[in-house]
Design a protein that fits this description.
Blueprint lengths: L11 E4 L6 E2 L1 H14 L7 H5 L6 H9 L7 H15 L5 E2 L3 H10 L3 E5 L4 H10 L8 E3 L12 H10 L6 E5 L2 H10 L2 E5 L6 H4 L4 E5 L19
Parallel strand pairs: 1-4, 1-6, 4-5, 6-7, 7-8
Antiparallel strand pairs: 2-3
Length: 230
């Protein structure tokens, strides 16, 4: 097993979920527009919704509808979650290489976890469906911590559950909030370009390396210009 040099020294590898390990954007678009519609608002463009993936729902509502709608965030949240219970599992698929990387790291003796702004059970359900639950030792969801990313709470909790110092962990994520959370936790960060965040954004943070996708964490080389250290 050939682990990327930016990851290899770690004892534990933690991953963001959406756009890092998996794509649930189709379901998120459906749920967001369902919830907006129940508030009497017009649907938002799919690309605008995709750019909010990874943020907590109240923040996403403020971006898509305007901060004045944050006063109805509880109602919005309820409509989103209800629809997600119907559609999210079937509309979520692992990205190329993700399953291989999770299995390889687990089999190679690394401790593996997921830290997400989704409910924990949504990630666990997808892992179970695809036979990957045994490869992931800990899943920390938005329901497990007082503050979502970009706060470092989820990363710190995952390290505590694993019994490993945050400095011995590395976090792999696709967004600026992931980079902010890693910096706040004092944890090494590896960026992937499989989401909606441009490479230039990551230059503002102490990123170990920028990869084209999660498949480059283990094995399969990167294409020309796909990975670059800062």
């Amino acid at each position: 097993m050939r682990v990327h040099p930016a990851v290899a020294p770690a004892r534990a590898v933690l991953f963001d979920f959406d756009f890092t390990l998996a794509d649930s954007s189709e379901g998120v678009v459906v749920c967001m527009n369902h919830a907006l519609g129940r508030l009497g608002l017009p649907p938002a463009p799919a690309e605008a919704i995709r750019r909010t993936i990874g943020l907590d729902l109240p923040t996403a509502l403020g971006i898509l509808a305007g901060e004045e709608w944050r006063s109805r965030e509880d109602e919005f949240f309820g409509h989103f979650v209800g629809k997600a219970d119907e559609v999210m599992l079937d509309s979520t698929a692992f990205l190329p290489g993700a399953a291989r990387v999770l299995r390889a790291l687990h089999g190679g003796g690394y401790r593996v976890g997921v830290v997400t702004t989704k409910y924990r059970h949504r990630v666990e359900d997808v892992l179970e469906r695809d036979g990957l639950r045994g490869a992931v030792e800990v899943v920390v969801g938005i329901d497990d911590v007082p503050r979502p990313k970009p706060a470092p709470d989820g990363l710190v909790r995952a390290a505590e559950v694993l019994g490993i110092l945050v400095g011995d962990c590395v976090f792999v994520g696709d967004s600026e909030v992931d980079a902010m959370a890693a910096r706040g936790a004092g944890m090494g960060f590896v960026a992937v370009l499989s989401g909606t965040t441009e490479r230039e954004v990551f230059a503002r943070y102490p990123v170990r390396v920028v990869l084209g996708g999660v498949g480059e964490v283990v094995g399969g080389g990167s294409g020309p210009g796909m990975s670059a250290p800062f």
